[in-house]
């Protein structure tokens, strides 16, 4: 790609921002991890021109250029594995926590033209993300509700059935356990909102790690 635009679960803001600096910093926004992770740097360039284009494309809200944030681990932990030479510009688009799921799904469609220009747009999060329920005493098994929702989400995605995913809070008790807070789920809605009619979908590296 000529650039990467990532919607990361870890940039949750009031309003919608896009990184617009020449050289985004590597943000180590986590704790209690090995020092090796804190030593990681991913010195990719930014792309202020592309950031300005993003601002102009979105009419659903006002996108604000940001010069302070950088790339958080929701972005660099993934992108550096894909493009380790750090030569492809990377931008982040924040998630406005004051808006509902449909807003984010519809906002993504306004960015779709960027794909035709060679921009890879990606969402980084987790469909099932409830760290408060982790049980390290039983690492060999997954909760029934977690496995159930993983299967449900994948089927809806593969069937291009977006409406239940947008209304995920209506999918029952298992969904409320899988998504106790929205930030890790909302990046998925951006990727779904970018899907074109008839565009094929595939799952890769589809594995439950226990």
What would you note in describing this structure?
The protein is α/β, with parallel strands linked by helices and 210 residues long. 34% of the residues lie in helices and 15% in strands. It has nine helices and five strands. The strands form two sheets. It has a three-stranded parallel β-sheet with strand order 4-1-5, with helices on both faces. A two-stranded parallel ribbon has the order 2-3. Helix 4 runs parallel beside helix 9 (186-193). The longest helix has 15 residues, at 144-158. It is globular and about 45 Å long. The model has no long low-confidence stretch (mean pLDDT 93).
Keywords:
5 strands, single chain, 3-stranded parallel beta sheet, globular, alpha/beta, 210 residues
Integer-rounded radius of gyration:
17 Å
Number of discrete helical segments: 9
The helix/strand class is alpha/beta
Q: Please bin the fraction of helical residues.
A: 25-40%
One letter per element, helices H and strands E, the order comes to: EEHHEHEHHEHHHH
Low-pLDDT parts are none
Please state the overall shape, judged from the principal axes of the Cα atoms: globular
Strand content is 15-25%
Distance between the termini: 33 Å
Number of strands: 5
What characterizes the major β-sheet? 3 strands, parallel
**Order of strands across the main sheet:** 4-1-5
Mean pLDDT: 93
């Amino acid at each position: 790609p000529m650039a990467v635009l990532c919607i990361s679960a870890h940039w949750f803001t009031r309003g919608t921002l896009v990184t617009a600096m020449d050289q985004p910093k590597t943000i180590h926004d986590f704790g209690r991890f090995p020092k090796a992770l804190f030593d990681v740097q991913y010195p990719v360039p930014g792309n202020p021109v592309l950031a300005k284009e993003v601002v102009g494309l979105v009419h659903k809200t006002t996108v604000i250029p940001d010069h302070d944030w950088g790339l958080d681990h929701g972005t660099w932990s993934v992108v550096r594995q894909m493009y380790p030479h750090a030569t492809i510009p990377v931008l982040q688009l924040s998630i406005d926590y004051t808006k509902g799921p449909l807003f984010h799904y519809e906002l993504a469609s306004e960015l779709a033209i960027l794909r035709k220009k060679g921009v890879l747009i990606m969402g980084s999060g987790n469909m099932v993300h409830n760290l408060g329920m982790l049980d390290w005493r039983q690492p060999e098994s997954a909760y029934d509700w977690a496995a159930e929702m993983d299967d449900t989400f994948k089927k809806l995605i593969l069937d291009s059935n977006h409406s239940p995913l947008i209304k995920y809070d209506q999918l029952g008790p298992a969904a409320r356990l899988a998504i106790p807070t929205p930030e890790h789920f909302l990046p998925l809605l951006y990727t779904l909102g970018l899907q074109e009619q008839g565009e094929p979908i595939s799952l890769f590296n589809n594995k439950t790690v226990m």
